[in-house]
Amino acid sequence: MTWTWFHKLASPPHAYRILGRLAPWFGWTALALILVATWWGLVKAPADYQQGDGFRILYVHAPSAWMSMFTYVVMAIAAGVGLIWRIKLAHGAAAACAPIGASFTFLALATGSIWGKPMWGTWWVWDARLTSELLLLFLYLGYMALRASFDDPQRADRASAVLALVGVINVPIIHYSVKWWTTLHQPASVTKLGRPSIELAMLIPLFIMIAGFQLYFGWAVSRRLRGEILRRERNAAWLREAA
Amino acid sequence: MMRTPTSEAARLVFTRDLTLAWRRWDEVAQPLIFYVVVTTMFPLATTPDMSQLRLISSGVVWVAALLSSLLALESLFRADVEDGTMEQWVLSGQPLGWLLLAKVAAHWVLTGLPLVIMSPIVGTGLGLPTSAWGILMVSLLLGTGTLSVLGGIGAALTVGVRRGSVLLSLLVLPLAMPLLIFGARAVGMQMDGDSPLGALQLLAAIFFMALSLGPIAMSAAIRISVEN
Question: Cα(B193)–Cα(B15) distance, rounded to whole angstroms?
Answer without folding.
Answer: 42
